[in-house]
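Sample A.
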Amino acid sequence: MTVREMDCQSDRVTITWQDGHRSEYHATWLRDNDPANRDPRTGQRLIDVADLPENVTMEGGRYSADGLVHLSWSDRHSSEFHVDWLRAHCPCRGDTEPAAVTPWDAATPNVLRRFPYAEVLQLHSLRLEWLETIARLGIAFLRDVPMEKDKVLEVAALVGWVRETNYGRIFDVRAVPDPNNLAYTSLALGLHTDNPYRDPVPGLQTLHCLRAGGEGGVSLFADGFAVAEALRSEAPPLFDVLASAAVRFEFADASTHLCAERPIIQQSKSASVEAIAYNSRSIAPLSLAAGEVPEFYRAYRAFARLLRDERFVVKTALAEGDLVVFNNRRVLHGRTAFRTTEARWLQGCYLEQDGLHSQISVLKRHGPD
């Protein structure tokens, strides 16, 4: 990136770039981000904001052909910034851009695409595509993952860092004689997000099919963001109820008692949907005044009905060796009932989303294969 024009005043620097874009940097911001104040190995800041001079001003600035902006200060300090760094940190865009999110429904092509596991291991470009699919759609599949016990941990390491819970680092989804969760039965499970009774809720979930079993056990998925936006479009007042009313979720067994409150639909500051918390098995008795009950249940029922609408539900039978990673705060999952005489067995684990975004950034930094 090259500079067309630079104007340096006592309290700010204004740069007009070759492509016509204009960036304005305040003097305090520049002094705080002076490269001289960062450790060259780690990139971490060496000073605290209390160490910054309060009334310092700039006395001059120039741009040199080697791509550096040179600044001189009233306290005789001097700074050098590379133009690529300044453009990348233009205040008009902030330090980060939100990841692209693509809503989907049952008619969206390639939602069920299976990436070949062996190639994802070997090719950084394909691994990046797989990870970016998880970030963009909230879900992505692998096929031909070796059917080995605990293999899910090796695959999870490609995505991020595993989060241990009361279920362990790994949990086995199969019917057991004395279950502490309905997931460990052969019953059908409606669409839901996992563990809304935790704080924070696990960001990602991985499920690896070790044994498909026999009849039944078809997996169900739906994009909660798409469902929420459909409710907002069709019934805005009902959307507002679910986005504002705090719902209590709870889980308890012999050794654990977990509870948390959050709205079913959670929004960002810009009012975009950023998380869904929906689990009819763990929702606790609602603390609502009698006059609030009818309106809440109208909204709650409307959302639940949309989750049964064939427009939104994607169905797939996980074959042995299939593995799915999905955003547990966005994508709802469930299954049809299955026969206990057939030993259906999935292994899963939870991860956080920061690991996913870290892996994507590192792979982009390394470039193509």
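Sample B, a different protein:
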Amino acid sequence: MPAVSNESLLRRMYDEVFSKGKLGVVDEIMDRNFVEHEPPPPGFKSGVEGLKQLIGALRTGFPDLGLAVNDLVSQGDRVWARGTITGTHKGSYMSIPPTGKRISFEVMDIVRFSGGKAVEHWGVTDNLGLLTQLGAIPAPGQPKK
């Protein structure tokens, strides 16, 4: 499958799944034997079901969640992306009660595609930045409350 199509699939994942909450699209884009190399948060599964679980939790905590593509590059069967997740903390997320705070944090993804489906993912998420913005942990250099 051409790289442009793989890029389109990843953009669709960001737009329809993360930003609009259409979890059914996950099954269209991802292979059922999808391998996740980024460790899931505590209590979350890995693979396709784990991704759905994580997106559901994110959209519960941040109902206006959005994932914007900042950079997108592809070569062969892989697509690299850097994105920004934004939202307003209106629901409980990871046992953190709603704060009403606006959040913005970065993600980086590498996705390998085969046969028109995402088959592997490696990623880095700025969870420290997210938890700091929510007040769950003090910002670096700040005293504990």
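Observation for Sample B: Strands lie at 30-36, 66-75, 78-88, 102-114, 117-125.
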